[in-house]
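Re: the 135-residue chain
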Amino acid sequence: MGDAANTITKMKGNPLFALLPSEGLAQLADHSRIETFSAGEKLIEENGKNRSLFLLTLGEAKIVSNGTEVDRQKAGDTAGEVSMSKISPPVADVIAVSDVEAILFPSEVIDEVSARYPDFSRQLRETAMKKVYDR
């Protein structure tokens, strides 16, 4: 588990979490963990099982769909919205370009927070759809 206050500060810097009240932010932060990934390591595998929403805190990751790089995510960005919103399994690989540190929010907690705060659930789906269709 990461430091909750620091995690909340980082969450507030991302629009995905903007509609969550302090209780929702705290619930996510309390169940989060920090993981590091080496350059070249997959955070998420296309069509695989993803069990977390990722908030990158250091480094950069590339988004590769069907073998083609379609986007990049950097510190402050999220990954995993498509599978966390239950739209589909991951539609792309998310691969660390440099060493990456990320806060991971487990799917079970994302589901609980989404059920309790419909605005967050809606924002999660909208963010996922933009990432899929705006690339």
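The domain at 4-133 is CATH 2.60.120.10 (Jelly Rolls).
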